[in-house]
């Protein structure tokens, strides 16, 4: 099974949020998505179906999400869970993660942030890849191996280059700010590393661009950040 084949259960009492999150996942290639607006419905789904990941709102009308998850744990249902909550209380965060939850996202959040969290939990839990090859002219990047295929041969992306490319690819066609890229490469602190980011961008271009000095895919948006535009995916 590849990452986008995972079955995901979205539980939130706000119908609009469910629609946004379902579309977010659908647009990213996920096809097995179930939505519920109540805890009782979510409990029926989790009992009857093999769910790979639950995105669970804490503030549900019929039962607290933390209580629902605790009930699942007592019944031996060990599905990965990402909690959503409008409350930014440290006690809720610690309780949720203390129960064994895999992540916790506080509202409001960006759709891109939630998507990255979902993919990260699935990759970490099931050791999955997206099994995608990104095509950019005569250059191809295999996301499952981090190998770049060029007409003259192949080369591997470094860990930083792969992280950088994945961040840009997950937001393809959109501007990704310099700060967002730096925080992705150096989550423990990126102050003063702007020049290092520029170096990584240059080296990444040398591997994925047909003509690195005249980039067509990894574009600089002056004063804002960078944007990746790609061709087909297989």
UniProtKB/TrEMBL annotation:
GO terms for biological process: regulation of DNA-templated transcription. This is Stage 0 sporulation protein A homolog. Residues 131-230 form the OmpR/PhoB-type domain. GO terms for molecular function: phosphorelay response regulator activity; transcription cis-regulatory region binding. The modification 4-aspartylphosphate is found at residue 57. The lineage of its organism: Bacteria, Bacillati, Bacillota, Clostridia, Lachnospirales. Residues 7-122 form the Response regulatory domain. May play the central regulatory role in sporulation. It may be an element of the effector pathway responsible for the activation of sporulation genes in response to nutritional stress. Spo0A may act in concert with spo0H (a sigma factor) to control the expression of some genes that are critical to the sporulation process. Keywords: DNA-binding, Phosphoprotein, Transcription, Transcription regulation, Two-component regulatory system. Residues 131-230 bind DNA. GO terms for cellular component: cytosol; protein-DNA complex.
